[in-house]
Amino acid sequence: MAEIVPRQHSNGWLLIVFWLYVGVPLAWGVISTIGKSMALFK
Amino acid sequence: MTAAPAFFSRERIVAGPGFNRWLVPPAALAVHLCIGQAYAFSVFNAPLTKVIGITQSTPDDWKLTTLGWIFSLAIVSLGLSAAFAGRWIEKVGPRVAMFAAACCFGGGFLVSAIGVWAHQIWLLYLGYGVIGGCGLGIGYVSPVSTLIKWFPDRRGMSTGMAIMGFGGGAMIGAPLSVYLMNSFKSATSVGVAETFVVMGIVYFVSMCIGAFAVRLPAAGWKPEGWVAPAAPKKLVTSNHVHIDQALKTPQFWLMWWVLCLNVTAGIGVIGQASVMIQESFSGRVSAAAAAGFVGLMSLFNMGGRFVWASASDYLGRKTTYYVFFALGIFLYAMVPGTGHMGSVALFVLCYLVIISMYGGGFATIPAYIADVFGTKFVGGIHGRILTAWSAAGVFGPVLVNYIRQYQIDHGVAKADAYTVTMYIMAALLVVGFLCNLFIRPVHEKHHMPQDEVTETDAIALAASAAAD
Questions:
Q1: Do A10 and B20 touch (CB under 8 A)?
Q2: Chain A residues touching residue B292 (CB < 8 angstroms)
Q3: Measured distance CA(B380)–CA(B197) in Å, rounded
Q4: Residue from B77, B76, B101 nearest B89 by CA
Q5: What CA–CA distance (Å, rounded) separates B217 from B9?
Q6: Which of B139, B287, B341, B430 has the most CB atoms less than 10 A away?
Q7: Contact, B318 vs B436, CB < 8 A?
Q8: pLDDT band at B416, cuts 50/70/90?
Q9: A34 Cβ under 8 Å from any chain B Cβ
């Protein structure tokens, strides 16, 4: 009889890709805001 | 043989064994990063006043005061849709709710694009203001309540992550809008309609990815190795209060005021920050430096959402709000002094801490609701409490603008015109502190009967079994 293996719904790559999907645009937004904020210190 | 649950059904998205819960925060962020664009809507204001004249405003062009209603309508629709759709959101589950939010938010942009082409302001009110605003409300609440269910051990951190996305959305939306408008600008167009079309499609797709990726935990699921504390903190309940019953508790209304007053104080100074720093330090702070200050504030607004909400997991929700109010009272009272001292650095520092607590207030409230009312109807109750945001959106700016104008009309120097406003904000925070003080555990007469909880759990369990 075959052993019942719990269904794996996710893997590490999917996790990384999904976090990059939201992380990269957010990082772009943060970096561009930091660039704008530098005007305060000039 | 049982039929497979429909793609959009709640049953279909119950996670099976082995699902990694860290896939849920990016799904929530995919929605919040999009709807957070609302904070950056002001980048469209100037181009929208030149839709006909292209290079300059003509008498037939829209005025800024006319355009201001678009954002106001969106925030009011956010509060109302979150409040009235709460029960529906809980019933249909996050996939349907997030997809509906994507349709509304993306569709709102498309309707607005038609409004710009036809130069019909009512289409912008209907499109971005009402339809888009409903997308904001539904899209805001749904991922947050889902995350709370996945992270019973870190409620504050999980809600902080999602709501941080709402703060960060403007940082993506603003430069993206400017880039697209510059790309589409021509001799016959300011590029706003084309930008609305592109953004509507991009946001719709991005939010759909979040909607299709989101999962609900199976009934009775707990993080591996996590055991609920045997003696939880005094305010943290293991019971559940029904969404309709919550309205009958004093805790609901105290929390409503806690959020409203915290947001009123913050929102009142956000819109004025650029003018305030220039008038308080006349000749020393340029318009460009003031814009930099506003950018820095948005970074702290975003960061505060994650940092304060995460800190609330250790401090406790009530203590975190005590900090917001007590520290807020001190800082608001101190701001006029920094102006008189001529210390720009201290002024900026005070504002950055204030704005971080403004964001923190938004991010901590869902976890506070879950602690006090339980997790079963947290999305719906959160939606109803968010009407406090809509109310604060009116109170805050009105309070600051009118008091400032009154002062100037009575001969007060512009640099000193904000002093009274700051003291009034500090007084509001005193009231907020007292509201927080009176929040006690919900009386057991409001709790859902155990058989009702068991019955809903059994239905959910059957659903998760069907999903497996």
A1: yes
A2: 36-42
A3: 32
A4: B101
A5: 14
A6: B139
A7: yes
A8: confident
A9: yes
Helix (H, G, I), strand (E, B) or coil at B282: coil
Chain A residues closer than 8 Å to B29 by CB: 22, 26
Q: Which residue of B has its CA nearest to A18?
A: B26
| Paired tokens of B131 | 């339809």
Q: Where are the alpha helices (DSSP H) in B342-418?
A: 344-373, 378-385, 387-409
CA nearest to B213 within chain A: A18
CA distance A4 to chain B (A): 12
B22 interaction partners in chain A (CB closer than 8 Å):
15, 19
Q: Say whether the ipTM exceeds 0.95.
A: no
| Residue B438 exposed, middle or buried by CB count within 10 Å (0-12, 13-18, 19+) | exposed
B-chain residue closest to A4, CA distance: B17
Distance from CA of A26 to the nearest CA of B (A): 6
The band of B468, judged by pLDDT with boundaries at 50, 70 and 90, is very low
Residue B169 has phi, psi (to 5 degrees) of -55, -35
d(CA B68, CA B222): 46
Please answer whether residues B246 and B381 qualify as being in contact, where contact means their C-beta atoms are separated by less than 8 angstroms: yes
Q: Do A18 and B468 touch (CB under 8 A)?
A: no
Extended beta strands in B221-323, E state: none
Q: CB of B360 within 8 A of CB of B309?
A: yes
**pLDDT tens column, B48-101:** 999 999 998 999 999 988 898 898 899 889 989 998 988 888 889 999 999 999
Q: Which domains does chain B have, with CATH numbers?
A: 11-225 (1.20.1250.20), 243-446 (1.20.1250.20)
